[in-house]
Amino acid sequence: MVALLAMGVQAQTFPSPYCELTDDGSIVIEEITNVSFADTNIDNSDTTVALVDKTEMVIDVIIEETYTLEVSGNTEGAFDTNIVAFIDWNQNDVLDDAGEVYTVGTLYNTNGTDGVSVSLDITVPTDAVLGETRVRISKTYTDFGNEDYPASPAVIDACGIMFDVFGLGVEAGYGQALDFTLSLETLSTDEFELNALAVYPNPAQDVLNIDYKSTLAGVKVYNIVGQEVLSRMPEVYQLQLDISAFTSGIYIVKLFTEEGQHSFRVVKD
What is the pTM of this model? Predict the structure, then answer.
């Protein structure tokens, strides 16, 4: 479920209570052109502002659900730019706590409108705080170097567009950042009846059994970093998933039924 809402007058001046980008001379010549999250597109044509305010875009997401973040942008030729997402899941007005920073990927040689993009599947944490919170996408020039000169890597910082020039020191960089809003919800038990679901054994070694009162139209399994590792469309009430080939660890199972969706964690021994 995704909704776009128009926010009212901001109680605080943007980007408060979050940090502004450091006024360090960063140059916006490699702008973000589009951000897509949970199938909602946010276009940007501003090539002058270092931090773009798109907080009026509110995207509804559900705890434990997995969504795809996709970003496009202009690299001004055959150059690399690093894309990072910061999401304030705990709503403490800090964008880079542990578990809130996502390296999405590196864009190369694109004008931002030619279909080139980077993407990452992100799972809303179980302990994320409900309500509205901030997302910041940063796009920063980076250089991997070669045999003739050392690398100049982008600096991952929610409050600045910077890079480490030849490894000799951090300076203002080239790029842009963009903020938007997520609204976190839980899946209503009126839509999905938890007491009608049976999952066993958990932890599991080879086979995971899933029983529900109505037809399971779809099942997807994601690893802990949000990568899809299994997808089925069984159309059955009772399902056995072969997880024998999975490595040990925690996985997120997402169920699709006529009543709605539900996600839960499973431990593979």
Answer: 0.67
